[in-house]
Amino acid sequence: MSSLHVNKALNNNVIIAQHPEHGEVVVIGKGIGFNRKTNDIIPLMAVEKMFILKNQQEQEQYKQLLPQVDEALIEIINEVITYIAERTDVPLNEHIHIALTDHISFALKRKEQGIVIQNPFLYETREIYPEEYRMGDYAVRLIKEKLGVDLGMDEIGFIALHIYSAMTNQNISQVREHSQLITDLVGIVSDHLDYSFETESLDYSRLLTHLRFALERVRRGDKVEELHKLDSLLKLEYPEMYSLAWKLTKVMERRLNLPVYPAEVGYLTIHLQRLNQRKEEEKK
Questions:
Q1: Closest CA relative to residue 188, chosen from 275, 118, 278
Q2: Which pLDDT band holds residue 270 (cuts at 50, 70, 90)?
Q3: CATH, domain range 174-283
Q4: Domain residue spans in the chain?
Q5: Ramachandran class of 40: left when φ > 0, alpha when ψ lies in -120 to 50, beta otherwise
Q6: Which residues form the PRD domain (predicted)?
Q7: Closest residue by Cα to residue 121 from 111, 132, 107, 112
Q8: pLDDT per residue as tens digits for the range 127-167
């Protein structure tokens, strides 16, 4: 059986169907539910750009959410997820359908009521997740084009985090904690060096990128080779920056509840020393 049997059409873009491999599924696709009746057969080959929710819990959540959402928005989100899927080589966690639908629907309601929520991680998100940010920008532009509502830059950042969450199979709360941690680490560096970073500067971008990759290595448990001679030299030559790097890695350990390889201290020291040097040069 290489076809779907329609159990129920929920609207023009969503049906509940029987799938040859996955059993009962929620199928999302442009126009897939149009004029469909129970027991209709849809050849799989005839369905273009469809998404299938296989997980039972995800199915139930999506079915509960659907009646609260405008059908035009369902179509837009379907288009956005297709756009994302075509530009990434990793499979998206199917929770993105619920997460984006729920988030964007709520954002539109807030906009209608004049409630503005500022994104505290906007600059960090743009620098740390540039691809996801571009995809979020596409989503916001598409909503403006199709619905005439501009959700603004703050929402681009929020949507980007949801996209990153789906691409890495991380819970959105984990992604937010990760972003908050990077913001806090930058704050510690800024306070220690008594230096205010320009958010558009290359120095700021480099620091965020370094911290992002350090946290990713810690999260994945990647072993970082320790360079004993270099480590000793850095400790001797740049004691203040070495101490600051050590402090930052201890904050990472505590917040992530994961061990940080000692080698990270050395690599971070080099980066901090370059920042400190730049600060001193600016003073002259």
A1: 275
A2: confident
A3: 1.10.1790.10
A4: 1-56, 69-109+124-170, 174-283
A5: beta
A6: 68-173, 174-282
A7: 132
A8: 888 999 999 999 999 999 999 999 999 999 999 999 998 89
